[in-house]
Structure to design on (619 residues):
């Protein structure tokens, strides 16, 4: 196969810039990830959008921050600004486990090698640029900047940090999915304005002196948060702040948010309305090579790319609003879907890749089965302030029709270049349970389930009930576990009808706020009764901009300000986690003794087959 010219990728080196005949770059992007030119990787998306707006863009991927900083200088000084991102993950989540142990690999680096980005990467990169080029503006974005845009608790440092704009010294922050604000920023700088003058753009944040008046923009109203200094002294005020930020982030007609920090004011402009189908298509249809930059060939495959290179992302956003999840905080609760034409165009592109064997690994999104779902009457959505469309019950106004998704599955199946297309993303099973979702009026959920189970399951299906305790599930903003029972029954019936043996793989979280040790023992017993022997369990990590993080730090729920107990010590967290592994010999004595202490011999019997009588424990 003939190799593609290096100019098909955005330039990573000075030589590549010169090959394009450029003397100067308009924007230089600094990223904590290796450069993969694919729509699933944020740096590629941002770079291609800038290119589509006529800018000359270069990328510095995973620069060395520990030497003479030559990587930060190699492409020179950009005409307009530097764009900085930590990458597709918060750098601290990328680096550390829930137990704060350093991870030994990095999925966004060639060969999966760890150590190619710093802790708090956005801040480190931005400060270096400010030292080398103090006169050049720095724009920060990506998930790390987005979720740290206001005062936030950092689990790894175990303290509150101010807005990332303070420590990074950046000039402006783009939060959420950045296509819409970015295009406005580009038009602004091309017209001759400085980044600091673009204070009227939605979905950006910046700092200004307290003595300066706030910009007057249209009919925007302003909501003021408790100051950073007040939050440092008062955990309840910090918790109250979160509710305001979450509500405003998920409104169509949101207010501007301000927060005092030191002698400055943090200003967060309201978000854009969710992208329309044509805007989504425009982003996904840009001329990506869909491949890592050739410079990485000798360093080994990039695990995150290998996982998604034959997958198709059909939509963004999630209306679940789960307490522990950052998807809605970054992508929004309203679903932004691509057109069927754009999706099928990408399927065509995948089939033409030289190493494609006919199998698509995922037709999905953040939640696999939310494609095209939105309000029946969108004027109701425009006034809604709820962080979730399906908790505590499914909104009557939510259209949960699965037919558009079923139709796409069938069209992909019929494509001559596709042998099989799997759904690898997690399926939101509660949308498919009629007792929970009363909006299944024409039976299209059953049609979808049959299509999914018979054609699109790769050996096993992932779902995420997350817990079995109703009290814990309420804190998680998840439905009662009884609906998982109902889903499993339906799943098993369809599987039996077609003679299929494709196990369900349920995901659970230990140590989540509101979960006590006894709840975990119950979870282990209930899942054992269902025939599950859990192998992979997620220990709760408090990530910025989530309800669960606020509860973990403050001890109260941000919406009610009522206390909620959370496992915090290493011992408490380990105790909860051990119940998952009741089938391992090394844990059996511990579980038996622990449940004796908790006065729950009934759970010991269910888990271990022991009973307590006058002579002690016996099988």
């Amino acid at each position: 196969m003939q190799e593609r010219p290096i100019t098909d990728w955005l330039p990573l080196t000075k030589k590549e810039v010169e090959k394009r005949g450029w003397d100067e770059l308009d924007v230089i992007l600094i990223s904590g990830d290796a450069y993969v030119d694919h729509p699933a990787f944020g740096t590629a998306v941002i770079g291609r959008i800038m290119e589509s707006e006529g800018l000359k863009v270069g990328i510095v991927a995973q620069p060395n921050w520990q030497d003479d900083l030559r990587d930060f200088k190699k492409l020179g000084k950009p005409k307009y600004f530097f764009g900085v991102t930590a990458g597709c993950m918060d750098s601290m989540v990328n680096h550390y486990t829930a137990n704060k142990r350093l991870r030994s690999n990095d999925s966004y680096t060639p060969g999966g090698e760890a150590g190619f980005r710093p802790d708090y990467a956005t801040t480190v990169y931005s400060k270096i640029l400010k030292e080398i080029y103090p006169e050049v503006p720095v724009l920060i974005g990506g998930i790390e900047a987005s979720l740290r845009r206001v005062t936030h608790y950092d689990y790894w440092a175990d303290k509150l940090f101010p807005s990332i704009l303070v420590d990074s010294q950046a000039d402006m922050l783009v939060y959420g999915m950045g296509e819409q604000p970015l295009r406005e920023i580009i038009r602004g700088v091309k017209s001759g304005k400085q980044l600091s003058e673009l204070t009227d753009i939605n979905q950006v944040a910046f700092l200004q002196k307290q003595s300066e008046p706030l910009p007057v923009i249209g009919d925007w109203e302003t909501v003021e948060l408790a100051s950073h200094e007040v939050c440092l002294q008062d955990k309840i005020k910090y918790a109250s702040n979160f509710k305001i930020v979450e509500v405003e982030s998920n409104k169509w007609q949101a207010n501007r948010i301000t927060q005092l920090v030191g002698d400055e004011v943090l200003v967060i402009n309201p978000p854009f309305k969710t992208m329309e189908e044509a805007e989504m298509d425009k982003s996904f249809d840009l001329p990506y090579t869909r491949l890592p930059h050739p410079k990485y060939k000798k360093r080994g495959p990039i695990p995150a790319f290998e996982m998604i290179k034959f997958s198709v992302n059909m939509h963004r956003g999630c209306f679940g609003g789960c307490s522990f999840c950052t998807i809605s905080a970054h992508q929004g609760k309203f679903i932004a879907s691509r057109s069927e034409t754009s999706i099928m165009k990408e399927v065509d592109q995948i089939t033409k890749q030289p190493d494609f064997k006919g199998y698509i690994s995922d037709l999905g999104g953040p939640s696999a089965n939310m494609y095209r779902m939105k309000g029946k009457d969108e004027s109701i959505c425009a006034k809604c302030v709820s962080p979730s469309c399906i908790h505590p019950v499914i909104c009557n106004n939510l259209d949960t029709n699965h037919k558009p998704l079923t139709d796409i599955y069938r069209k992909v199946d019929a494509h001559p270049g596709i042998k099989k297309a799997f759904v690898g993303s997690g399926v939101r099973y509660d949308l498919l349970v009629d007792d929970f979702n009363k909006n299944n009026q024409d039976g299209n959920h059953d049609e979808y389930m049959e299509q999914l189970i018979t054609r699109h399951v790769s050996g096993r299906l992932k779902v995420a009930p997350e817990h079995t305790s109703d009290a814990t599930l309420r804190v998680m903003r998840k439905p009662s576990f009884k609906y998982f029972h109902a889903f499993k029954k339906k799943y098993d019936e369809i599987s039996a009808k077609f003679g299929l043996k494709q196990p369900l793989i349920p995901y659970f979280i230990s140590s989540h706020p509101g979960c006590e040790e006894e709840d975990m023992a119950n979870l282990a017993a209930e899942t054992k009764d269902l025939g599950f022997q859990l192998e992979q369990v997620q220990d709760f990590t408090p990530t910025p901009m989530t309800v669960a993080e606020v509860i973990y730090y403050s001890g109260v729920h941000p919406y009610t300000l009522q206390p909620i107990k959370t496992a915090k010590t290493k011992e408490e967290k380990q105790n909860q986690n051990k119940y998952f592994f009741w089938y391992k010999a090394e844990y059996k004595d511990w579980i038996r003794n622990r449940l004796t202490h908790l006065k729950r011999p009934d759970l010991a019997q269910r888990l271990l087959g022991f009973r307590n009588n006058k002579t002690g424990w016996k099988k």
In short: DSSP finds 24 helices and 26 strands in the chain. The chain has a mean pLDDT of 95. The CA atoms of residues 158 and 553 lie 9 Å apart.
